[in-house]
Amino acid sequence: MSVIQKIQERQKWVFGSIAFALIIFVVQDKFMSKGSLFGSSSTIAKVNGEAIDYADFQAQETLTKQIQQQQQQDVDEDILSAQTYEYLVTTRMLNQEYKKLGLVYTNKEFGDAVASNNPPDWFRQQFSDQTGAYNPQTASSKLSEITSQIKKNPNNPQAILFYNAVLQPTTDAELGKKYQALINGAIYIPKWLAEKNAADNSAHANISYINVPYTSVNDSSVTVSDDEVKEYVKNHSKEFETKEESRQIAYLTFDASASPQDTASVIAQLNALKGEFKAATDIKTFLESKDSKLGYSDRFLGKNIIQQPAKDSLFKLQPGEMYGPYLDAGDYVVARMVGIRTIPDSAKVRHILVETNERSQQGMTKVREDSAALKRLDSAIAEIKAGKKFDSVCLKYSDDGSKFKGGVMDFFGQGAMVESFADSSFLGKVGDKKTVHSEFGYHYIEILAQKGSQPAYNIAYLAKPIQISAETDDSVKNAAAQFAGTSRNIKDFYANAVKLKKSPITVGGIKENSYELGNPQSPGYLGKNRQFIKWVYQNGVGDVSEPAKFGQKYIVAIITTIDKPGLPGVETARPLVEQKIKNQKKAKIIADKIKGSTLEAIAQNAATSVRQADSLSFQLGSIPTIGLEAKVIGAAFNKQLQGKISPPIAGETGVFVIKSNNIYGVASAGGNLEAKRKGEEMQLKGNVMRSSQSFEPLRKAADINDYRFTVLK
């Protein structure tokens, strides 16, 4: 997501009080002229020489946390810290650029926006009426009234919070739009380029070729020296050069998962609780008192909704009967059949939804208070009861997309809807009307029809996780500590690993301010552990860690490499480039063996065959059954090689020799050249808008000093 999008998302969080929202007219000039809103305590970063104070960082982090909590999102402190840093650095960098360009967002512009039919999003949300309509005159009248009240108390302590939560993001977003508009205005596709693109996109070729894959030469027959790795990295410096230091570790794991004795202990505990569980009348309270991993929802669910691994056995139970303990992922479970009833297979309803929360990529966002939502829904119900058509009332009041078809939700299964909505639709009878609360807001639901029937089960689950005992954990930790104690250098570390029949796992690219070790998609991924990363940066090459806990395992690690800013060292670069260098050497070996004046002769000498590739597209750049081969495609469309045998071409997968038989154009799919030119231009502008392409050059050129490692404890 681009920075502009992040700023716009931040604007969606608004405060419940209208009066609070209007502090802008009192505090803007006061705060805008003072720079930082907080006293400087220490510097967390510098962007082109301009400091970002730790106090500003802390305030922004606290604010973002409040926003996430308001939107009912889980807050990950490490990710929050990293996001806050990136946000402050990027906005500071952009504001420096805005200043160079003379871009400003004035009070008058804000005032004009408020008085128009297109105000800032947060202002529209605060001042729209019950139907969602925004009236500039009404908003201006309320603005004057409340501004007068606020001026009587200009030292409102919430003013600073509002500045950071609403005013500054609004200003940043509007300046970002202006900056983006300047960039978009500079994007232009000239006629000659459109003509070339059209010709390239329509170009096709037919070739005959042979391919000798790199796999035909054994890897063991080709060696790569450290000097060759260094040379390759040097020749491709733009690809490998970094601005930050990174480090690499190798580690051994010691499994700390539960032992058979730990498992037996959980099973015994559940068996001892069976009698109480069966006799419990208040099931929810009982499960809570026993710290059950699964709570009780008191719902009747169809077979397709219940996902317990032992469900076939559960469905055979009668009310009051129990089953288990049985294993469900990492838990042991005892199930009690509470009740069985019949429900429809599917239901058809119509409804009106008045939202209190709206789902977005960032989670649930509060859009309306419960009291306001209920008041709005009551108005809709009153109009229906007064004789107005459901369709028209739904269109007027509902926030759900179904309002354009009368609020009708055609036949759906129980699992297609949120719990309260599904229960109302499947447990009621046709004709029932009911107000229901869900995570999205308040629904007025009428059941129109139901089809089929199926058994539904109300099942309670007493679940306990399989936990490692202190004895098991201590045993594993002691084994890891013994290894660490006898492996105080690189030689001993690897020698002792061999004795234990363990293979060290490598994790590289560890940055000073990383919050997790490795890539989540890689087998060496360890997860989050800031304290361990700090240890990596407080020690040097050859230092061995004490046992560190990661999930259900302990690790002992050794620092193997420190890559300073610039080009990486051999140990870091080798895994990235060794195969590429080997392929280069293999290409020379294969090319030296290619002999013959015709493709057929070359194929015979290379123990392969001549193949054909028809209708190759210059635009796509790939060969059927082989894949992307840019060099081969380039040769296929080289008119100087047409009808001739090419020299050996070192491709991605092997060495090719080709003969271009024909190059031709395919008729255009339609449309005039000017329309296509404008289309390409719009697509390019859209790509820039949807990504961070316009910001990356600024980031690469910026002088950014990061002091988080020493400032953040």
Number of helical regions: 27
Query: What value does the Rg take, in angstroms?
Result: 33 Å
User: How would you write the strand order of the largest sheet?
Assistant: 20-3-24-23
Query: Percent of residues in beta strands?
Result: 15-25%
- Determine the fraction of residues in helical runs and give it as a percent range: 40-55%
Shape: globular
| Distance N to C terminus | 29 Å
What is the chains' assembly state? single chain
Uncertain runs are: 1-40
The count of β-strands is: 25
Query: What's the rounded overall pLDDT mean?
Result: 86
Based on secondary structure, the structural category is alpha+beta
Task: Explain what you see.
This protein has 713 residues and is of the alpha+beta class. It is built from 27 helices and 25 strands. Helices cover 44% and strands 22% of the residues. The strands form 8 sheets. A 4-stranded antiparallel beta sheet has the order 20-3-24-23, with helices on both faces. A 4-stranded antiparallel beta sheet has the order 15-4-19-18. The chain has a 4-stranded antiparallel beta sheet with strand order 5-14-7-6. A hairpin with a 2-residue loop joins β1 and β2. α4 packs across α5, α10 (191-202) crosses α25 (673-690) and α11 (226-235) crosses α22.
